[in-house]
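seq as requested:
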Amino acid sequence: IAMNACGADTLQQMVTITTVGTGEPAWVESFRVFPNPAGSGGSLTVEMDLKRAGKVSFELTDVMGKAVRVFSFSEKTVGSQVFNLKTEGMAAGIYFLTVHLEGKVWGIQK
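struct tokens:
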């Protein structure tokens, strides 16, 4: 909410995520990011079915390639995993989401 001498108003942000790569590695069964685009709720949810345990991390970069946010998670087990990525305070725009498992790049979402 933004306030000035004239009163208050609600600001909204939109973060659009679209698929750049389509291949899923042998260690991921499925992958989903929502909501898309992300609105003013301040978070993205990533659902993955892992076929292999490991440390998972995500990196959000802007269109210039600058890292905006990095999200690191502890060791995850095989099976369905849900990750909540906070986007509060980010400017509206297009971002790339890079997914890592055990330090290796899985894919990039735009």
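Confidence is low (pLDDT under 50) at residues 9-13, 16-22.
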